[in-house]
Design a protein that fits this description.
InterPro entries: AcCoA_biotinCC (IPR001249), Biotin_BS (IPR001882), Biotin_Carboxyl_Carrier/Decarb (IPR050709), Biotin_lipoyl (IPR000089), Single_hybrid_motif (IPR011053). The chain has two helices and ten strands, in the order H-E-E-H-E-E-E-E-E-E-E-E. With about 160 residues, it is an alpha+beta fold. It has two domains: about 5-45, no CATH class; about 85-164, Beta Barrel (OB fold (Dihydrolipoamide Acetyltransferase, E2P)), CATH 2.40.50.100. The protein is elongated, with a radius of gyration of 21 Å.
Amino acid sequence: MTDSRHEADVAFIKALAELLRENDLTEVQVKREYGEEDSLNVRVSRVLPAAAPVQVAVPAAAHAAPAPAAPAAPTAAPASTEDPAAHPGAVTSPMVGTVYLQGEPGAPSFVSVGASVAEGDTLLIVEAMKTMNHIHAPRAGTVKRILVGDGDAVEFGTPLVIIE
């Protein structure tokens, strides 16, 4: 590789890093072809600071209304102003990817709210770059909350499940 091409590659990588910052991206991957057997594969990524929790105002009339007779969704949890990532039982995503709550479409979920789990049990899958990564329970306990939905995109450090 010539010095001029090396300098051009360095400039190209710096431009990719700037693109990440300007567009608030977490990762970009590019393959630059120079010839039949000559290419440059570049992957630039960064970890964003954890997002502040979003607080939602609930009208006072909603508190006075009787609860509906329909059962709550399994991922529903009481509204809380605390950050789920700060909970001592939070299991966070080790990577950027897409969450799947079951092993295949139509199969039962790995866990549900109220289920007991043993250390090492699969809680869900995070797919990253076509690789299915099983997220295991770091300790035994009961699943108190499932904080993500099937097919949700997650970042590194996103709280997924609360186990107590």
